[in-house]
Amino acid sequence: DLATLSGKKELALDVHAMVEKKQIPAHDYVLSDYFPDPRGGLVALLSWGEDYNQVTHFSILKLDEHGELRSQVELGSEFVPMRIAVFQSGAYFVAGQEKEQWKSLHMEILDSAGKVISANLPLFAANGQSSSAPGGSGKDDSPASPSGSLLLASDDGNFVYAYSYRAPNVIEKISDSGKFESIPVDELPAQPRESVLPLDMYALHGQVLVHRAVYSTLRPQNVPAKSWFLAAKHYWSVYDGATGKLIDTYGPRVGESA
Question: What is d(CA 155, CA 143) in angstroms, rounded to the nearest whole number?
Fold first, then answer.
């Protein structure tokens, strides 16, 4: 369910109901990601197959503001899509992993009917994060999937912004034609024995807001292990989406907790 800050439910996504209505196959399925459609409603990435270990089909589900399925676009099986964002125009930005090279990040743009507009986008190439880039090595020693590190946001200017904690000093600004611009930004400074974790990102009117948590890499003795992350300081940094210039940062001052 999606709700406003007041607690009022705005939209419910019920995949089981879609199966019962025979709108999607009654096989093992995984809801990989969802994203609010700037024009209203929601889009979701769905994967399914005969069993969980043999996922062979991928679709984009378009739901209206009441959670009713309005359209379904079946994707090709060249890669495993795991993240999605929607442009104001209705085009899709999809990111995932190459099937044969799980550490290789694959990103492409599709029109509203699922036709590929631009494939193998070399985003984050300058930071060595994208093996889709020509000549890119694709070396990645992290055990996590590369698409799992992506934060995505779309704004009313028909751009999608992508941020990866593996490349914390840049935000990629992407148009629905496949053109993109790497915008350098200042990473939130961390003190010794602190780690910065990006949590979410939003974009509106040409500005980008990044929500980060800063927590100590050494757990204080008076903080229980299960509450360690809850003791993190939370910051919200607002950047100019065209230049990357830091406009303002909201959060606790030095020595305070959020």
Answer: 31
For the chain, how long is the longest CA-to-CA vector? 56
pLDDT in tens, 40-67: 888 988 887 765 556 678 889 888 887 7
Bridge partners, 129 (sequence order): none
- CA 236 to chain CA centroid, Å, is 17
Strands (E), the chain: 2-3, 9-11, 28-36, 42-49, 55-63, 69-75, 79-86, 92-98, 105-110, 116-118, 150-154, 159-164, 170-175, 180-184, 194-204, 207-216, 233-240, 246-250
Tokens 């679709």 belong to 59
The 10s digit of each residue's pLDDT in 101-145 is 666 788 899 999 889 999 888 887 755 554 333 333 334 444 445
Write out the H or E segment, with its range, that includes residue 16. Answer: helix 15-20
Residue 180: phi and psi, rounded to 5, are: -145, 160
